[in-house]
C-alpha cells in the first residue's frame, strides 16, 4: 500500500500505534464539528490522476450513463407535502459510472478490500466494524463528470459517504453543502425550499485536490456537485461499507442503478 497511500501521514497500517489513534481522534473531532473530514494526499496524487487517465477509454466505451431527474429526497413524493411544494423542485443529474467489475486491478479496488481501510473508517465513525460489500458491481464505483454534467442537490440515504477524488476539472465540480439543514425530528421543508431557491446564506463550497479522502455525513446535510467546465472531467470514486459482511444489492436494484445486473 505504501506505493499508493501516504502511510507516513496516515498510518492506517499501524492500528496499535499512538499515531493511528491520534489520527482517528482528529477525524472524529472534524466529523463532530463539520460533519466531514478530509485527508489531503491520502492517495498519492500522481497515482490517483494516473488511475483517472487510465480509465478514460473505459468511460468512453463501457460506462453507464447515469442521467436522471430527481428531487432532493430521491423520492417520488412526500406524503405530507403537496406535489407542487418548492421543497420538491426537480433537478437534473448526469454522470458516467464504472462499477467494481470494471475497476479490477485499480488502486481503488485494492484499497477497498484492504482490511485496515475499513477498520480505520469504522473507528472514525465510532462503529464496532465496517465491511466491504459482497456484490459484483456496487462496492466501489467511479464517476466521471464532463463539462455540463453534475450531481444535483440530495440528502444521502446512508449515514456516511466515503469518496476519493482522482481528477479535478479545470473549473467547477466543487462540493457544495449546507450543514444540518434538517434533523431526525424536523424536516424543515421551508428551509429546504429556501435552499433550492438559492437563498440560503449558510451554503458552503469545498474544492478538493486529487488523492483526498473525504468522509461525509450527508443524511441531514444536503449537498451537490457544481457543474463541471473545461476539457478535463471530474473523476471520483465512491466506496460503500456496511456494519455487517456479505451485503449485496438485488439484481433489480443493480438494474436500476447501473442498467445491468452483472
Ligand atoms: O461526488 C461527490 O463529491 C459526492 C458524491 C455524493 O454525494 C454521493 O455519492 O452521495
Ligand atoms: Fe451524496
TrEMBL record:
<dbReference type="InterPro" id="IPR056470">
    <property type="entry name" value="BesD/HalB-like"/>
</dbReference>
<comment type="similarity">
    <text>Belongs to the iron/ascorbate-dependent oxidoreductase family.</text>
</comment>
<dbReference type="GO" id="GO:0046872">
    <property type="term" value="F:metal ion binding"/>
</dbReference>
<protein>
    <submittedName>
        <fullName>2OG-Fe(II) oxygenase</fullName>
    </submittedName>
</protein>
<dbReference type="InterPro" id="IPR005123">
    <property type="entry name" value="Oxoglu/Fe-dep_dioxygenase_dom"/>
</dbReference>
<keyword id="KW-0560">Oxidoreductase</keyword>
<keyword id="KW-0408">Iron</keyword>
<dbReference type="Pfam" id="PF23169">
    <property type="entry name" value="HalD"/>
</dbReference>
<keyword id="KW-0479">Metal-binding</keyword>
<feature type="domain" description="Fe2OG dioxygenase">
    <location>
        <begin position="132"/>
        <end position="244"/>
    </location>
</feature>
<dbReference type="GO" id="GO:0016491">
    <property type="term" value="F:oxidoreductase activity"/>
</dbReference>
Amino acid at each position: 500500500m505504501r506505493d499508493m497511500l501516504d502511510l507516513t501521514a496516515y498510518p492506517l497500517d499501524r492500528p496499535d500505534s499512538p499515531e493511528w489513534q491520534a489520527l482517528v481522534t482528529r477525524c472524529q473531532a472534524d466529523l463532530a464539528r463539520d460533519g466531514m473530514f478530509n485527508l489531503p494526499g491520502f492517495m498519492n496524487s500522481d497515482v490517483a490522476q494516473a488511475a483517472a487517465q487510465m480509465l478514460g477509454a473505459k468511460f468512453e466505451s463501457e460506462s453507464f450513463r447515469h442521467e436522471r431527474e430527481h428531487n432532493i429526497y430521491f423520492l417520488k413524493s412526500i406524503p405530507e407535502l403537496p406535489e407542487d411544494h418548492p421543497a420538491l423542485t426537480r433537478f437534473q443529474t448526469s454522470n458516467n459510472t464504472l462499477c467494481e467489475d470494471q475497476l479490477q486491478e485499480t488502486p481503488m479496488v485494492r484499497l477497498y478490500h484492504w482490511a485496515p481501510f475499513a477498520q480505520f473508517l469504522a473507528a472514525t465513525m465510532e462503529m464496532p466494524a465496517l465491511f466491504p460489500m459482497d456484490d459484483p458491481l456496487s462496492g466501489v464505483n467511479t464517476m466521471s463528470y464532463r463539462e455540463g454534467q453534475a450531481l444535483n442537490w440530495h440528502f444521502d440515504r446512508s449515514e456516511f459517504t466515503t469518496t476519493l477524488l482522482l481528477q479535478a476539472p479545470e473549473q467547477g465540480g466543487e462540493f457544495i453543502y449546507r450543514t444540518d439543514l434538517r434533523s431526525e425530528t424536523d424536516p424543515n421543508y421551508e428551509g429546504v425550499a429556501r435552499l433550492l431557491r438559492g437563498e440560503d446564506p449558510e451554503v458552503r463550497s469545498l474544492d478538493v485536490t486529487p488523492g483526498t479522502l473525504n468522509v461525509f455525513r450527508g443524511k441531514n446535510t444536503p449537498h451537490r456537485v457544481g457543474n463541471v467546465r473545461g476539457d478535463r472531467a471530474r473523476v471520483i470514486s465512491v466506496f460503500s461499507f456496511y456494519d455487517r459482511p456479505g451485503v449485496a444489492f438485488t439484481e433489480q436494484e443493480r438494474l436500476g442503478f447501473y442498467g445491468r445486473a452483472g
